[in-house]
Amino acid sequence: MNAPLRARPPLANLETVCLVARHGSFSAAAEASGLTHGAISRRVGAVENWLGCALFERHARGVSLTCDGQRFLGRVEHAFDVIDAAADQWHQSRKTPAVRISVVPSFAKLWLLERLPSLEAGDPFIDIQVTTEHRNADVGAGEVDIAIRYGRGAWANVDWEPLLPETLYPLASPEVAARLKGASVSDMLALPLLHDSDLTGWRAWCGAQGVSLRPRARDRRFEDYTVVLAAAEAGLGLALARTPLADAWLKRSQLVRVSDVEVECPLRYNIVTAKREKRPEVLDVIARLQAAVAASGY
């Protein structure tokens, strides 16, 4: 059988004890709180009666804590700190707007994550919750608030707008690039072409050279574009630089450009939302994404 709960003094009485200890007298505590001297005295007395011991030594110039009072006050102040921290955390979690955004892993690694702190910062702070996946999240059904999709646009049952265009040119590891110095387009295309799930970029670049590209057994396909770049670094063939998406990666890598010809990619990254999206925090994140692209000169 559970023991009956012991009645606790009101929090206001405990706060008054802390106030008296802080000011050193009932009169000063009364002036600071707007209560009467008598009300302060009654509140302190109620806590002392509940504890069964004196918390303060009364003297002519005010009061001072007894040994029991010092120990008790330390526990009470710690308890108030715990309550305040819990309240702050709850208030912040309820107050901070959150926006869920779905992106493919390569876009997250190459572009989004390094910009995430600045995208979240501002007035108001927005908690941007990133989901990385290769499938297209259903924004219309509320799976996420924003999806960044790679393609030509014109998707049905959603609203979309362009975000990040791309320019393409081929590159390779230093060893492969050295072998290709002065090589013709035919010599270059004799090597395996590295690509992700879509050949559109390579078709566009080859088309600019007057070459019609068809799938070839020797080419290598990887689901994620960062793996395409890693394969090029390993000397497995030619990859396309997709700028500005891969700019930061290319600066850190040893990949070498192997042709002066560059083309605009027919595909781009687009912002996709549910139709007639009006939530201020979602619109704010969209504006911040667009500003980040504009800041990079694209």
SS element count, helices:
11
Q: Segments where pLDDT lies below 50 for 5+ residues?
A: none
Termini Cα gap: 71 Å
**CATH architecture annotation of the largest domain:** 3-Layer(aba) Sandwich
Strand order of the largest sheet: 4-3-5-13-6
CATH topology of the largest domain: D-Maltodextrin-Binding Protein, domain 2
Shape descriptor reads: elongated
Assign the CATH class of the largest domain: Alpha Beta
CA-based gyration radius: 33 Å
Helix content: 40-55%
**What is the assigned CATH homologous superfamily of the largest domain?**
Periplasmic binding protein-like II
What's the rounded overall pLDDT mean?
91
- Proportion of beta-strand residues: 15-25%
State the major sheet. Answer: 5 strands, mixed
Class from helix and strand fractions: alpha/beta
